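Hi R.,

Here's the chain you asked about this morning:
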Amino acid sequence: MQHTKPIETRATMRGTLRMIAVALVVAGATIAPTAHAQGNAVKELAAPPPIQLPLKPSAGYAKFPRYAGMLGSRQIVLRLGPKTDDPSGVHGEYQFTDNGEVILIAGDRTDDTLEVEESNDGTHITGNWVGKFAADGTLTGERMNVDDSNPQEFDLRPLAAGAAIPPPAAPAAASAPAAAAPATPTAPTPSDQRGGAQSGGQAVNGVSNLRTAE
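And the predicted structure, written out as tokens:
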């Protein structure tokens, strides 16, 4: 009988610990969904907005200088401006005038040399540009695929603010060889007729310009 109280005390403590453990499990099950939901909300706020495809012209690039001209056989309008966080960095977009497709570009400009990469979805690189700026602002160079295949020349000229986009350059028409004009027969002159009458031979039936050989 002397050991009854310690045993009862230990049993009571074990029961109390079980109750505390159950309470903690229940509380954890209640808090976990709330914390998970809060974590998802924070992630959604921190993540950039998803890119909508197909790409549309960006309002952020609308104020950039414009260049219009030909990329290969298609006309484009390029909007290119400096990055705010990189002194030599440039970015922007170009748009085909025939179907409105928009391509993003980003890279570097060092003095008059431009080297940029392009992407048609904002994630995957689809091509590279290497070009030169002339003193008048004209930009010329070559655009290639990622593996440097399919090179296409570009020739772009700066557009004044508010200026209309010029029509695309038409390919030069092949010049057809001029057809030779048919020779126009000339009528005999009176002197030719007299010369024939004075040549040797006899007149036929009194017609002096028709003679037979003697």
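The CA atoms of residues 64 and 81 lie 5 Å apart.

Let me know if you need anything else.
M.
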